[in-house]
């Protein structure tokens, strides 16, 4: 008896491997060999289930592709990438945003400023001075490359000029030593 059951299981396994995952083919083969195989659901239900599975698989592939494209080309804001526009936008508001522009980023990033001292643009919610809202050719949704971003506003003579020149000549950037949003120490040193 046990040997017969093992043979049946082996045949069922072999059939599933040979027929693949196509439920119609699998049903045809199993109902030909075995008695009492339940009938298939109506074709429209079977097609609908197949369509839903196919759409979900395509979305997964698209999400992986979008994420890898964003990584290669720069960055994109997750709600934008996932087409969740309502995370930031509200058409019923005059501004078109869920919160005033200066408060919007803090909805999802409430602790972006660490410490008691805040960098000017971050302190007043002017995140778009440095960041793009949807996507960017640079990491972290930056408006330009790291080497040029701070100098767009900060053109004053550097304190410890020699040290800053040496550090930058060795390929370091302002954000390697300074937190661009704020901190607990003077000059937002990390």
TrEMBL record:
Origin superkingdom: Bacteria
Check the record and name the Pfam families matching this protein. Paired_CXXCH_1 (PF09699)
* Leader sequence residues: 1-19
Record flagged with keyword Signal: yes
Instruction: List the keywords (alphabetical).
Output: Signal
Q: Which residues form the Doubled CXXCH motif domain?
A: 77-111, 119-158
* PROSITE patterns reported for this sequence: PROKAR_LIPOPROTEIN (PS51257)
The family database entries (NCBIfam families) matched by this protein are listed as: paired_CXXCH_1
What is the protein named?
Answer: Cytochrome c3 family protein
Q: Which organism's genome codes for this protein?
A: Geomonas oryzisoli
